[in-house]
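All the exercises in this workshop are built on plain-text protein records. A record pairs a protein's sequence with a compact description of its fold. Read left to right, the backbone structure tokens trace the chain's path through space. Once this layout is familiar, the rest of the handout is easier to follow. Here is such a record, shown just as it appears in the course material:
>
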Amino acid sequence: MAKKRNIIVGQSGGPTAVINSSLAGVYKTAKEHGFDTVYGMLHGVQGLLDEQYVDLDTQIHSDLDIELLKRTPSAFLGSCRFKMPEIQDKPEIYEKLFQILEKLEIEVFIYIGGNDSMDTIKQLSDYAALKGYSQKFMGVPKTIDNDLAITDHTPGFGSAAKYIAVSTKEVIRDALGLSYNKENITILEIMGRNAGWLTGAAALAKTEECPGPDLIYLPELTFDMDKFLAKVQELLKKQKNVVIAVSEGIKLADGRYVCELSGGGEYVDAFGHKQLQGTAAYLAQFLSAKLGCKTRGIEFSTLQRCASHMASRTDIDEAFMVGGAAVKAADQGDTGKMVVIERVSDEPYTSGAGIYDVHQIANNEKVVPREWVNEEGDYVTQEFIDYVKPLIQGDYAPFMVNGLPQHLVVKTGNTEK
């Protein structure tokens, strides 16, 4: 009997509004390329080590389900933040995982995720080469942070940027309506630990009828509290309403996160990342105490990554494209690689998929270039705006039922062991 051709796919890290479009691309392309079974890991590698997986044929029954999946936020299969140990430290974990892959007759392993997930692909492909296993390992990019190296941008970023631009514009409109004869400061806290791509996207709110945010602070540059206060004071001499966008990861010259000044940032995840929250609230309190005016801190928080109703069509389509490209590359013999998005042109905007060695990508963080931030360090340049603007174009309307969006969810009764 011929060996079965099976694929397994998992999702890892913080979800996005379009991560399931990549999953749909993997599933549909795998079926078109003649793979027998497409398994889904439940909660990534961590779940797979507990033999938690599902046959996606039991979940997806039609093209309509695929379209519904593309419109479903969060990780359909469930995500995880599980750090694979170094091979020499715990080889038994690797051997257990490969025994599961052998049992399921897996030919291709695909992981949809960000920087830490690409490190997992690197480690697993290295172990397979070391021990002579035949499985192929491919990474599919995913992160709203847009901080993966080599790829022009990452699926998930465009939709999050669109949400941020829209929400910033709406907050500004709200604030302007309450600013008659009264000073009002609003601080928007946007995700971004070390890379300010998302925070910079707030600049897209500046349109013909909207002034956009007054100040934008990215984590790539040192944050100076005294200069910040002086800048806000200067603005208040000319206008009653001030709106400021800050990254959650802005740091002082001594290396402390601003959010730590209020006692936050104590939780640390498996990858050593501190939980960042409270930056806007702290700065709002700081300005209120110094200036004696009304202030408000707003955290966009997880809404940035789960607002599928605000997904960019460009983002949805590219997420689907890279999922399918990973299957095609593995079918042609590639392993230890990640799919990247290559920008072909801006007007009209077009892109394509490329394949790069994951060793060149894993653990390499892409930050906003210094020349894309103004000299004062408190706003992004037109080059930044021109880079992001094509990625937020188009809409992908959800399927509405009784006034609410319909989502596809895993039927856990079909879980296999």
User: Anything to note?
Assistant: The domain at 6-144+308-365+394-414 is CATH 3.40.50.450 (Rossmann fold). The chain has two domains: 6-144+308-365+394-414, 157-306. The CA atoms of residues 243 and 388 lie 21 Å apart.
